[in-house]
């Protein structure tokens, strides 16, 4: 359904590249209290759709896309993301989300991106608003946002 990310995508400020096993220690080390509060413990072997790189080529975080959640409708994909603590507050989440949505629009049959956000996660709520997502109810106390990919 979704072609894998096989090359780097960039907007000139951030880049997305395929995830690799040697990224795992950095991703795991970046799991601070905020990560755990909103995303839980995380996988012991993280393998996100893409790694987010800053302009210096350093890992700034990750973005992920999945289509296997029971609440997703046909043509929808859920997107998750995290920016490492020392990289936060620079707009990387917004840019990485926009890049992943462009990739999905051009390389898949998907029509809609969704975000599931804890109502206490003010930074992620701001990212959703800044990238044009609209709230569509909630699922188990989490706010559900959607946006057309095309």
Characterization of this structure:
With 150 residues, the protein is α+β, with helices and mostly antiparallel strands. It has a single domain (9-148), classed as Gcn5-related N-acetyltransferase (GNAT) (Aminopeptidase, 3-Layer(aba) Sandwich), CATH 3.40.630.30. The protein has four helices and eight strands. It has an eight-stranded mixed β-sheet, with helices on one face. Strand 1 and strand 2 form a beta hairpin. It is globular and about 35 Å long. The mean pLDDT is 95.
Strand portion: 25-35%
Molecular shape: globular
**In the CATH scheme, what's the topology name?**
Aminopeptidase
Architecture, according to CATH?
Answer: 3-Layer(aba) Sandwich
CATH level-4 homologous superfamily = Gcn5-related N-acetyltransferase (GNAT)
The share of residues in helices is: 25-40%
State the name of the first-level CATH class. Alpha Beta
Low-confidence stretches: none
């Amino acid at each position: 359904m979704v072609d894998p990310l096989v090359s780097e995508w960039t907007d000139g400020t951030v880049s997305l590249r395929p995830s690799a096993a040697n990224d795992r220690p950095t991703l795991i080390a970046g799991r601070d209290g905020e990560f755990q509060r909103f995303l839980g413990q995380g996988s012991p072997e993280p393998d996100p759709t893409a790694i987010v790189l800053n302009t210096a080529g350093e890992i700034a975080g990750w973005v992920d896309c999945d289509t296997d959640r029971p609440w997703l409708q046909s043509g929808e994909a859920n997107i998750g993301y995290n920016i490492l603590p020392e990289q936060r507050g620079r707009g990387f989440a917004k840019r990485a989300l926009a890049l992943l949505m462009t990739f999905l629009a051009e390389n898949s049959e998907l029509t809609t991106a969704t975000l599931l956000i804890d109502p206490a996660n003010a930074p992620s709520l701001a990212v959703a608003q800044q990238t044009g997502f609209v709230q569509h109810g909630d699922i188990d106390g989490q706010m559900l946002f959607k946006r057309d990919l095309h």
